[in-house]
Amino acid sequence: xxxTSTRPRRSRLHRKEHQAALAFVAIxxxxxxxxxxxxxxxxxYASFTxxxxxxxxxxxxxxxxxxxxxxxxxxxxxxxxxxxxIGIPVGLAISLGLALAMNRKMxxxxxxxxxxxxxxxxxxxxxxxxxxxxxxxxxA
Length: 140
Hints:
Elements: H1 12-47, E1 49-50, E2 58-59, H2 63-70, H3 72-102, H4 109-135
Antiparallel strand pairs: 1-2
């Protein structure tokens, strides 16, 4: 018994919609390739060479990476980056918790809001007093 698979023919409208969909999808794909993937791949290639941007690149292998991981400034910057990657989300979580606590109806909320906003208000008042002092005329 033989079975023949016949694909249903697509209508002209279906083919036009398919082509339009491909055109819409092609634009972001081309943008991704031009502005993200190709520069990334070129950067990886350039990291294995000694190239100043004018002369021809000279292949160095892993020498650039061994020099980079031996540099104390790179290691310090790597540590700073990791610290910020952990510190910023933790600070945001604490800030969100404080904001949620200040928005609740519970005992002591008014005191907490006052203590929390006092530095903001006092610095504005201090600046206003300084500007008032600086802008007044004094007779010598």
